[in-house]
Amino acid sequence: MTRQSETFLEDFTPGQIFRSERFVMTIEAIKAFAREYDPQPFHLDEEAARDSLFEGLAASGWHTAAVTMKLLTTSPFRPAGGHVGGRLEELRWPLPTRPGDELRVESEILEVRASESRHGYGWLRVRTTTFNQADEIVQTYVGNVIVRARGA
């Protein structure tokens, strides 16, 4: 995989959309993540999961968030200075991520503004949505990303 060049603050505009590649969530990965970071029965055991609110094995929302980050960092959305989050406004998991789900991410630039306190930097307000293979939303959030301005 070749890495694209970074994009500076001045090169972003509201309405831009960046799309990632796809990532398949395996049952093994779901259980491994859960054992390490979110060891709840509905993430670890199919039988226990059937009797839960999820009615079947579901990935931890934090696992979905981690995969979203992986997809973001390998997508065409390349803010200068990296994906440095300054604030998260909202985070939602409207549907569970299931074994076999093929996730993809879309990031939409909502706002671009220069920083008032840090010369040479600015903010991108971004809506990031994670979809499964049926184009159903499994995660959405609005975040604020710190990005370098050209010449910083």
What can you see in these coordinates?
By secondary structure, the chain is of the alpha+beta class. It has helices at 27-37, 41-44, 46-50, 61-73, and strands at residues 17-24, 84-92, 102-114, 121-131, 137-148. Strands 1-3-4-5-2 form a five-stranded antiparallel β-sheet, with helices on one face. The two termini are 28 Å apart.
For the residues shown, what is the average pLDDT? 94
Largest sheet features: 5 strands, antiparallel
Strands of the biggest beta sheet: in what spatial order? 1-3-4-5-2
Evaluate the radius of gyration.
17 Å
Strand content: 25-35%
Give the total of beta strands.
Answer: 5
What's a quick, concise take on this entry?
With 152 residues, this protein is of the alpha+beta class.
What is the topology?
Elements: E1 17-24, H1 27-37, H2 41-44, H3 46-50, H4 61-73, E2 84-92, E3 102-114, E4 121-131, E5 137-148
Antiparallel strand pairs: 1-3, 2-5, 3-4, 4-5
Please give a handful of descriptors for the protein shown.
elongated; 4 helices; alpha+beta; about 150 residues
